[in-house]
Amino acid sequence: MKRKVGLALATLLVFTMSLFAGSTKVSADDNSLQKVKEAGVLKVATSPDYPPFESEATIKGKKQDVGLDIDVAKQIADDLGVKLEIKNMDFGSVLAAIQTGKADIAIAALSPTAERRQSVDFSNIYYTGGQTFLINKKDVAKYKTAKSLHGKKIGAQTGSLQNTLAQKYFEDSAVSSMDKNPDLIFALQNQKIDAVGLEKPVAQAYVAHNKNLAMIDAGYEDDADESGKAIAAPKGSSSLIMAINQSIDKITKNKLTDQYLKAAGEHLDEGAEDNSMLKYWKDFYNGFLNTSLIALLAVIFGIMLGILLVLMKLSAWKLLSWPATAYIEIVRGTPMMVQVLLVYFGLGAVFNLSALVAGTIAVALNSAAYVAEIIRGGINSLDKGQTEAAKSIGLSKVDTMRFVILPQAFKNIWPSLGNEFISVLKESSIVSIIGVTDLIYQLNVVRANTYRAVAPIVVVMVIYFLMTFTLTRVLNYFERKMNNA
């Protein structure tokens, strides 16, 4: 499947969440199905960058999730008599979403591997498509069968089932891994690799929309229980799994997956008719708005919290200085991605935060630690005579800090703060992993929908450059004003 790293990530998040809310225990009396029906909503976690299983399409002017998996989810919700709520996020987060209560089930072309079964429960298999290799069409005569790929360069998505199978059956080949399939296809077209391992429906979609590609059967000894697609639910959700299996039986009996794949193909064909970047200007515009909003709020609250942290750290009271020092060291010593996931799945599980709110809080908390150190450096750079002069005219410690120290410190550290603002603008892109529709999220969706690897990247790169260039000019203007004051 896509990324087995989701298992490790989910395990880490569940452990971390226990620090906030205590250990989660499964009740002896399973009420998973009852909870869904009482809520009247089936919350489904998915990753809409994997057509034809799940992707986004504009239907009647409105953005909607489409694909085989989405239609399966709709059928399950209909059978349960509840509404369907799709929660889009990075694939590595879908299992964590169901384990932390953000979603009831995960349906994202998941393969029920033995490793994943240790963390979640799976439904029956609802689809098995088989494994293939995507090659350049000009190499069809060269690579007639998968056996011809022995000793060649094979690409596969990081942590995917295809990656595992390639390493198992092609030990004499160099297996390269990348996070996104469009990157692998681009590498294939540029002859960096000789073939890409993909599931059959995904490979068929690429071939249908790119005349320069072809596919050959992988020839693996396929294990349906491992390579088939199933729906994940939290451990102990036997009643919900049973209800889902009833819907899967109906889907299998009526051969609905064929209809679902046909409908998904039609959506992809509609998108392929005009895959110019202008068609997706609304997607990029919405991504720009969300990125700007997150960066602005993160900077404002980051400065406020940063000032508080530095005052605490400089305090003579260890009860204040120690927590501030610990906070700064922990935040600066851990990746922002981990912090975003912790806020969304940990803190967010307690307060039910939306992805946008959780992402903004995480970026602000991260920025505050760096701002605090920048301000501390500015304060320490001032001559001690400033403090002594303030005391001599009768100013209290608070007034000295407020009217003498901080204004001068901010003037000295403005260039460093400006760099931090620009870093926040760029690094906030990490919030896309929890489903915030920022520029990077829209980039991945557009790449998946258009089967174009480079053009969407160029568009987003230009947007980021214009944003940072404009911000730099604004910061330089205020720096000149302060220097002339």
Automatic annotation (TrEMBL):
SUPFAM superfamilies: MetI-like, Periplasmic binding protein-like II. InterPro entries: AA_ABC_transptr_permease_3TM, ArtM/GltK/GlnP/TcyL/YhdX-like, Iontro_rcpt_C, MetI-like, MetI-like_sf, SBP_3_CS, Solute-binding_3/MltF_N. Residues 1-21 form the signal peptide. Residues 288-472 form the ABC transmembrane type-1 domain. The keyword DNA damage does not apply. It is found in: Cell membrane. Keywords: Amino-acid transport, Cell membrane, Membrane, Signal, Transmembrane, Transmembrane helix, Transport. It is a multi-pass membrane protein. This is ABC transporter substrate-binding protein/permease. The lineage of its organism: Bacteria, Bacillati, Bacillota, Bacilli, Lactobacillales.
